[in-house]
Amino acid sequence: MERLNFGCGNNIKRGWVNVDKQEGEGINKSFDFNKFPYPFKKDSFDYVLIDNVLEHLEKPVEVIKELHRICKKNAIIEIIVPYYNTYYAYVDVTHLHFFNEDTFYNLFEGNKYDIKKKNLFKVLEVNSIPQRYLRWIPKPILNVLKRFLGNIIVNLNVKVRVIKLNTPLSP
């Protein structure tokens, strides 16, 4: 199983391909994530982890398209991002984008009128990760509170399956 740790920073994972914009010990490849195409062959990876990286990139839609290219059929892409209304989303001035649950459904599955995105990804799960001291509150209550109060949810953890069609995609 080929696994990609996309934007690894100091979190080097053994047995994974660790990539980052910086060079360093344990980093297998260094490149600019805002420049396409990425230095990988088509259908290279079974699993991609993007942990607190997507919010820093200029063109997240293009990043997702490129990840689709380098992923194998049925690969899993796991994305972790700060939740849009948490303190942590705004404290870092290098964050260019903000995400909630609907962002990922639109990004990966599109709306009902977006034909091009259909059948490229299947959202498997979108988990809201609450503050550590609020994890005892039942999820249905958290889901209501997060709509009205900031800092209830700190991260989103999203998993999608890559779908590859038998016919080439139109540009």
Question: Any overview of this molecule?
Answer:
The model has no long low-confidence stretch (mean pLDDT 91). The chain has a 7-stranded mixed beta sheet with strand order 3-2-1-4-5-7-6. The protein has 4 helices and 7 strands. The longest helix has 11 residues, at 60-70. It is globular, with a radius of gyration of 17 Å. It has 171 residues and is an alpha/beta fold. Helix content is 20%, strand content 29%. The protein has one domain (3-162): Rossmann fold.
CATH topology: Rossmann fold
Q: State the strand order across the main sheet.
A: 3-2-1-4-5-7-6
At CATH's second level, what is the architecture? 3-Layer(aba) Sandwich
Q: Give helix and strand order, one letter per element, not per position.
A: EEEEHEHHEHE
Q: What would the principal axes of the Cα set say about the shape?
A: globular
Beta-strand percentage range: 25-35%
By CATH reckoning, the class would read Alpha Beta
Q: Please outline the major beta sheet.
A: 7 strands, mixed
- What is the number of domains? 1
The radius of gyration over CA amounts to 17 Å
Which regions contain 5 or more consecutive residues with pLDDT less than 50?
A: none
Q: Considering the protein shown, what is the CATH homologous superfamily? A: Vaccinia Virus protein VP39
Mean pLDDT: 91
Backbone structural class: alpha/beta
Number of beta-strand segments: 7
Give the % helix.
10-25%
**Distance from first to last alpha carbon:** 29 Å
Total helical elements? 4
